[in-house]
Amino acid sequence: MNYALLHALNGFVAHRDAIEDPVELYMAASQALFAGLVVAVFLFGGRRGARGAVAALASAGLALAVGVLIAHVVNEPRPFVAHPNSVHALIAHKPDASFPSDHATAAFAIATAIWLRLRGVGAIVLVLAAALAVGRVAAGVHYPLDVAAGAALGTGAAVLLWWAPLRRVTDGVADRLSTIAPWHARPERS
């Protein structure tokens, strides 16, 4: 089932330039997009935004660290390596471990942390994270299970850091860092 979904999605996209080009573009821009979203939320999202941005970075860091450990244990080859004759790698990628997806891990950690503090913006970022996860499968660099595991890992890290004792730490860091934000000088409206 994992391979069948990958093969169907990758084959569909690889043979349709009108879809392939936007997928490749989004994959290329995704890291900068998510980094820019974190910065924008920090600078312009008020106190909750600053807290969400700091939590997003902490969540992504935690989830990626756990993901590296899992990748070393599982060491699953990427689809384009395991199936070179049937999977089309639409983007350049190292032939390193595929499980879990680092991109999906970080994207869902960021999106969930922001969503827990700013529901509207967070919902948009969650949609972008889901599009990224689907795009990684369509590009042939991950299996569906890789991105699902990354999504669960990233979401889990953000939810863990939402736990009150840990949230107080990330909120405290955000409150200290937020003195550089443009909204800091004026009181925030409730």
Give the tags:
single chain, 190 residues, mainly alpha, 8 helices, 75% helix
Query: Order of SSEs, N→C?
Result: HHHHHHHH
Q: Count the strands?
A: 0
| Helical/strand content category | mainly alpha
Low-confidence stretches: none
Counted up, domains total 1
Shape: elongated
The percent range for helix content is over 70%
Main sheet overview: none
Work out the helix count.
8
Mind telling me the C-alpha Rg? 18 Å
Mean pLDDT: 89
Task: Explain what the structure shows.
The protein has 190 residues and is mostly helical. The protein has one domain. 75% of the residues lie in helices and 0% in strands. The chain has eight helices and no strands. Helix 5 (102-117) runs parallel beside helix 7. The protein is elongated.
Give the SSE layout.
Elements: H1 2-14, H2 17-44, H3 46-74, H4 79-82, H5 102-117, H6 119-138, H7 144-162, H8 164-177
Helix pairs in contact: 2-3, 2-5, 2-6, 3-5, 3-7, 3-8, 5-6, 5-7, 6-7
